[in-house]
Amino acid sequence: MRTIFFLFAVLTATFLPAQSVKKIHRKAVLVDTHNDVLSSGVLDGIDISKRVKEGHSDLDRWKEGGVDVQFFSVWTGDKPRNKEGFFQDAKQEIDSLNILVLKNPFRMTLARNYQEVKKGLRQNKFVALIGVEGGHMIENDLGKLEELYKMDMRYLTLTWNNSTSWATSAMDETLHADSLKQKGLTEFGKQVVRKMNELGIIVDLSHTGEQTFYDALAVTSKPVLLSHSSVWSICPVFRNVKDDQIKALAKNGGVICINFYSGFISKEYDQRSTYLNGSGKRIIQDSLFSILHDSVAMKTQWQQYYDAEMNKVRPSIGQLVDHIDHIATLVGDDYVGIGSDYDGVGSLPVGLEDVTTYPKITEELFRRGYSKKSINKILGGNVLRVMKANFR
Question: What are 246-259's pLDDT values in tens digits?
Answer without folding.
Answer: 999 999 999 999 99
